Amino acid sequence: MKKMAAPQDMYNGAKFKTNKFGYVNIVEYYNCHTVIVAFENTGNIRAISAAKLRSGNVPDRAIPPESIMVGERVKSIKHGWLTITKVESENIVLMTNAQNEEIRMLLPAVQKMKDKSAEIENLKSDTSSPTSLKDLTKRNKNVNTMVKKMLTDYGK
Length: 156
Known about the structure:
The chain is α+β, with helices and mostly antiparallel strands. It contains 4 helices and 8 strands; from the N terminus they run ββββαββββααα.
């Protein structure tokens, strides 16, 4: 593979933050499609494109993707709020509820609960935030009349 001159931000030893796996250091820059990086926390070495590296989309294949979920909370209809404590095998997730009782579920079921809770949070955040300047300045009619009365009665 032919080596090219590296851009200013892609020098050997440069440090980049990833979205989920900590920091990576550039070991070697070949071209925009092939950049060799090493993960600081695991020492794993892999090749990635420069665009993915700049955006932080660099997965560490030495860490199973399920272990990222440890510590997250999900809402279950049957058990209430559950905290993920461990991912036991490929598809079994160990969780604890408010009474510290252990509950085991399959990974697809947990993913489904996470997706539902994310949807609910998105809906809540969408309805509570104003969409325009007019919505920001809009007040209740009773509040407007009360403020007007306070201003007219001030000093009497």
